[in-house]
Every structure is written in C-alpha cells, then in structure tokens.
Amino acid sequence: MSWYSTLIKSSVGKKAVMALSGLFLCAYLVIHLIGNLMLFAGPEIFNSYVEALSSVKPLVRAIEVILAGLFLTHILLSVKLTRDNSTSSSIKYDTNKAGENSGFFSRNMGLSGSILFIFLVTHLSTIWTQFQTQHEAGNFYSIIVGKTVGLGNPYITTLYCIAMVLLGFHLRHGFQSAFQSFGIRYNKYSGLIEGIAVFFWLIIPAGFLSIALYFGIIGAG
Amino acid sequence: MKVILKVWRQNNAESQGAFETYPVENVSGDMSFFEMMDMLNDQLVLDGKTPIAFDHDCREGICGTCGLFINGRAHGKIRAITTCQLHMRSFEDGETIVVEPWRAKAFPVIKDLIVERTSFDRIMQAGGYVSIKTGGTPDANAIPIAKRNADESMDAASCIGCAACVATCKNSSAMLFVAAKVSQLSLLPQGQPERVERAINMIAAMDEEGFGNCTNTGACEIECPKEISISHIGRLNREFLKASLKG
Predict the structure, then answer these.
(1) Whole-model pTM?
(2) Is residue B75 located within the same domain as residue B142?
(3) What pLDDT score does A219 carry?
(4) CATH classification of the domain holding B37
(5) Exposed end of chain B (fewer CB within 10 Å): N or C?
(6) How many domains does chain B have?
(7) Containing structural domain, residue B17
C-alpha cells in the first residue's frame, strides 16, 4: 500500500491520475459523438439506436457509474491541485505579462473546466433526465431537437456551442499535457501524439458543434 | 536616457513592503541593468537613504544568484539571459520599469528584492547528488556514454538554479528546476545507484517546501536563461512514476 500512498500523495502522482481520468473521458467522447451523429440519419434510425442501447441497460448503467467516477476523480483532483497552487503563491505581481510566455487557455484550465462542468450539469439535468423519464414515448429524436430542453431552445444551443468551443481549448492543452504527466515525452512519438491530439481537440468538438449548429440553427425548421 | 524605476521596498521578512518610485537620469544604453541600479544606489547613499538590496554575484550569467521580475517578465523581456545580462538599451527613454522580487511562498522576501532560496538547497540535499566514487577526470573519449545522453545531460546540467522557472510559473512550481537536476543524473552512469530514491525524495522535498503543481503552461522554458526544455519535466514525471511503481 505504501507505493500507492507515496504516489497519490505526491504532486506528480495526482497529476498522473488526473491525466488518466481525462484520457478515459476523451475516449468516451468518441463513443458519444458516434451516437450523436446518428441524428443526421433521421428520427427513425436515431430512435432505434437509443432503443438498442436500452436493451443492454445493465451495461449502460455500468458505464454511467464508471463515467461518474471518472468525472468525480477529474473534478475533485483539479479542485485539490488548484487549491494547492493558490497556497503556493505569495503576493501577486504588480505587473505580470504572462501572455508573453504562455497561452491563455493553458493558464485557465480551471475556468474552461468550470464552464464545462456547468454544461455537464445542465446536460444531465435536461437531456439525460428526459431520456430516462420519457422512455416510454420512444421519441428521443424529438427531445433532442425540441424547444423544451433540446436544440430548438436558443439558450440551450448557445450554451452547447460555447461549451464545445471551450472543450476544444480544454483538450488542446489537456490532451498533450496528459502524456507529459505520464512522462511520455519522446521526440519520436511527439508527431504521433500531436496528430491524435488534433483529432481530440479539433475534430471531436467540431463534430458536436456541427450537431448543435445544424439542429439548433439551420435545421430548426 | 532617463528611466523611472518603480521598485519593491521591504525592510525585512516580517515587514509590509510597498513600491517606491525613483527617477534615474544620465543612463547609458550600454550600461547593464545592475550598473544602472548601482548608480541609483550611489545616489541614494549620498542622499542619506537606504540603498536597494538585490542579489548578484558573477554578473556574467553563470552563477544563478541574480533574479528580478522586470516589467512583468522573469529576468526581463529578453530571452535566454539572466538579469545581470540585461542592458539598458532594451528600454525606451523615459520608460517606467517595474522591478519586483521573485514571488512564491517557498521564496519569502528577506529585504527589498532579495528572496530566501534555501528551499532549493533542501531539495538538492534530498537527492541531487551521487554518493559513489567517480575517480579522477577520465579521458574524454573513453567515457562510455552515448553522445545523445551526454548532450541531454549537459543541457540539464546547465541549470544555474536562478529560480526564474518558479518565479514565472502561475503555480510557483519548481518542476523545471527539479527536472533539470534529476534528468542530468538519470542520464549518466554515475547517477544510477540512487536513481529510484532520487526521483521520489526530490519530489517529496519539492512538495514539502510548498511549491505548486506543474500545469504544463511552458512559461518556465521560455523564461529559463539556459533554455532548459520542459521535455526534462516529462523525464522527471517518468522517473518518478517508474520509481514509485517499481519501488
């Protein structure tokens, strides 16, 4: 047990766990996006896809529990690390040109993460809850495009779009940082990691954004 | 040229500090920043005031003693230099220059612009050494170390411990400093016997001293006067994780 306590008590160990939870959440985004893209195939296919998921309910519930664990780990560790960081600083500089040596989003992962957290809570309390409570009706497509909690609601669409842009910036810094936290930093792999990173920070959020833009603005009618 | 210095003044570690403003005239662009400070201090002494205390030693950019936060940048805005290598030609005539000490909980201000950096010494005592006998200086080409490793180790060894990395980090993290020290020794055969303990003990000492966590912003490598890459932080993470998993 001592190796584990040494690891988790250390700053580097906490970062590694944070990175691991983040990468698993990234992997989930891929599955989630594939499911969401079925919206483009029309109501019938999308509804039957959600029905098919319902037929493996225990598996879905197990994944949801794992996801909740991953989110909690990622969020609680980020709060702990941020609090440690704030106590490690003394008086703030009178003049600090941090913008000349680092990127805005790399310095403000807590800010982008917090807004993503607000989105996550909204997302779960609206779409996810409706999917559970209105399961009998079977028309999941109409929940997504509807005006109540769906993309027919301009407030929901706006929050969705802001969250997806921020997700992109969050992952742009976070994905590659995860590999740095694991110590996977070799010149021969840097190109490969950068390539995979582009998939996660650009392609995945753009995929989600395309759904919001299409159903929220273009395809509203 | 003329400049206006806005300098942090603080009597001792316990007292409250504040900025004071001093106009400095007849400054030559060829003066170093410290020569300009010396000139100001001479004037302060003549006026019966207390001169500004600041750390300096070699004034050649090799000892790592000096370090000031100048106009919002560690060691000033010029890359790959220490404060002593900064010249007044880098500033505009009539410019206001804000001069602050390194800010970090692990570096309390002792007086004016001087901070206590013994926390770095304690991290070094935790593992930044080799205890084996390495003998006399061997023939250069007879050392069985790959060129690539020797080069990387030398890059890490160029760390002068000036602490600009901590000063510029938004989290006051000492990861680049510790990474340089661990990296330097982990790449050489002489560093192998204590490799596992070194990574664990130096990270523990770093955490103990109250330095923050690395969030990979990369500011440290930009401000490092020796341009030490954050790839060494990657190696430190690897060394630590391997050490704590393998034991």
Answers:
(1) 0.96
(2) no
(3) 66
(4) 3.10.20.30
(5) C
(6) 2
(7) 3-111
Q: Which amino acid belongs to residue A26?
A: C
Domain boundary among B78, B111, B144: B111
Q: What's the Cα-to-Cα distance from A14 to each of A84, B207, B241, rounded to whole Å?
A: 12, 12, 11
The beta strands (E) that lie in chain B are given as 3-9, 18-24, 69-70, 73-74, 96-100, 109-111, 114-115
User: Looking at CA atoms only, how far is residue A198 from chain B in angstroms?
Assistant: 18
CB contact under 8 A, B241 and A16: yes
Same structural domain, B57 and B83: yes
Interface residue A94 vs chain B (CB under 8 A): yes
Q: Tokens in use for A91? A: 């008086």
Residues B7 and B22 in one domain: yes
B18-65 per-position pLDDT tens digit: 999 999 999 999 999 999 999 999 999 999 999 999 999 999 999 999
Q: Are residues B37 and B57 in the same domain?
A: yes
**Whether A83 contacts chain B with CB within 8 A:** no
pLDDT surpasses 60 at A221: no
Burial class (CB in 10 A: 0-12, 13-18, 19+), B14: exposed
The pLDDT tens digits of the residues spanning A60-99 come to 999 999 999 999 999 999 999 999 999 998 789 999 999 9
How large a percentage of chain B has pLDDT more than 70? 100
In this structure, what CATH number is given to the domain that contains residue B237?
1.10.1060.10
- What's the whole-number mean pLDDT along residues A155-159? 94
Question: Which residue of A93, A112, A186 to mutate against B (max B Cβ within 10 Å)?
Answer: A93
Chain-centre distance of CA B169, in angstroms?
12
